[in-house]
Amino acid sequence: MITLSNIHKSFNGNKVLRGLNLTIPAGQMFALIGRSGIGKSVLLKHIVGLIKPDRGDIVIDGTNINHLRGKQIETMRRKFGFLFQEGALFDSLTVYDNVAFPLREKTTLAESLIKEKVFTELEHMGLKNDAYKYPAELSGGMRKRAALARAMIMQPSIMLFDEPTTGLDPIIGQSILNYIQLCHRRVGFTGIIVTHDVPRVFSIVQKIAMLHEGTIILNGTYDEIMQQHNPIFEQFMSGTLNGPLSYS
Amino acid sequence: MVIASIRKTGRWAIEYLWRLGTYGIFLVTSLFWLFSTPLKLRRVIEQISFIGVKSTLIVLLTGAFTGMVLSLQAFYALNKFGGESLLGPTVALALIRELGPVVSALMVTGRAGSALASEIGIMRITEQIDAMEIMAVNPYRYIIVPNLVAAVISFPVLGAFFSLIGIWGGYLVGVQILGLSAGTYFGEMSNYLDMQDVRMGIYKSLSFGLIVAWICCYKGYFTSYGAKGVGKATTQAVVISSVLILVWDYFVTSVFI
Prior knowledge:
heterodimer; A: 4-stranded antiparallel β-sheet; 37% helix; B: mainly alpha; elongated
């Protein structure tokens, strides 16, 4: 379970998170929505300990990660997988080496076993025939799948997805969501998807939260949220320019 | 008015000291990871290949021409008072003590240091370093330490190559073109050169290796975002490294001389 309590964060005086509270139950798929630049990715980086909050507590499976240092942070991070918006694949390594990277660095497995695991994971992602290509030789969708394979190879118990469908056409975007859903069924991780691709993501998550002006203004299942008729949520969903959300 | 300018100066000084402090912390952290965990040998070898082996050609080329021009200039200067026999030691001393370590370090800074800063900078802005941290892989251990070690190993070797090929270039001009005897050129060298000169060259190269890797890695690691940020970091890395090489060279020379 992930619990965020009273999280505050400012960058150069700009308050991004203002007393944010959120609880994500273990094993659930959770969507975090909100406008561009509102702090969704910042929130993900807080959860994984890449950014420290100015104030507030982040508790992962009973451990407050604000108090962790050195080896403790490393141990905690082994629980996580992270799919970055642009994949963040190491461009000097092939797809195979990218996926093998965490196994080589964090386990003592023999190379033959690593090879077996990597190819199994690549097969899940439909990339078996592209194992020895470099990231620059892959399409956007393939890069996302390769990054997903790398994130999944250590069987994380928590997966964070930063806009997994951004920059992809609707069909490739849907295929990425299907892969995420398959991974969730296979591993059973707690998943947080930061996205703008709202209608499609609703089909693979159990709960949705909306971030607005540094706090969570809505949190619940799709039906619960729809019943609230929140004008901010409704404008965000419809994409109209008139309403409480300004576009300037 | 006066208070405002004092305040402004104070703010600038604090900001400047803070930045200097981050350079220091970066180096100390890198050295901590260098000595507290096993070295990633494969990465070190890759970086020796990148910093050292791939710089060999440019170092040999510049070394040969530096030795040639040095020989040419020194010959005409020595000729004025009949001291041509000192051409060999003059070329060798200048190369081993000074030009070998300094010019080779400047050349490697331009070739490998800039590439290092931009490569690490791109890794930063494309979140590859964040990805590494999330995989519980320490970026200092994986990226910075191998570069520091590789530079400290490569620079003295490249400095030695530079000096050797420079002495050969000096021989080519002094003996083959200007007509000095080979015996005079090389014979006098052994009378004037001693191990202290070689040691000075090695110490300089070692410290230049550390300086270049430290500054270039730092600039890449803490680059600001976007292509402009990486470009700026790369330029600053080369400029600061080059200036520090010359400043540090003066201090090392003044200690050894």
